Amino acid sequence: MRELLARLLRRPASAVVEVPVRDLVHETLRSQDLPSTSEFSELKRELARANQELHQLAQRVDALGGTIEALRDERDALLAASPSPEPAEPTSRRCKVPGCEGDPKSKGFCKAHYGSWRKGELVGFVGPRGRVEHASRVLVVPMRHQGEPVTVTGKKRFTVKVDGEKVAFELLG
Ligand SMILES: [Zn+2]
Fold it and tell me: In whole angstroms, what is the distance from residue 81 CA to residue 98 CA?
């Protein structure tokens, strides 16, 4: 483009004055093997079409924006209408060993009870790795029950209940 301007400027002043500038530009474009007048018109039409498409796209984006706005309003209305969520179950502020008043530190046990639980010495709760001792036997329940209250009944055929629910177990040894 800079070269094109330079070439226009290099022409004698009289020529610039006499020849309409548009013709001059077209002539220069031709001499530089640049788009011809008809090609130029075609390009202009292409540009106009592109512009129109852009305009239509912009309108669609506007419309989408409106839809999103409407959906947002609807959501806000729904949220405002729905009842507030149930308050979370209050977490116990006491150690879960019955009768213990200690502050829960880990797995719901106070420091002392957690210590004995870790050593597998806490009767009435599923121990580490799901171990439960009963009548000199070791029973293993699913790991997810670790630290939950457990009862074992029976002498030869055991029934293991965790949190009052019967669970599957394996006998060790
Ligand atoms: Zn305790």
Answer: 42
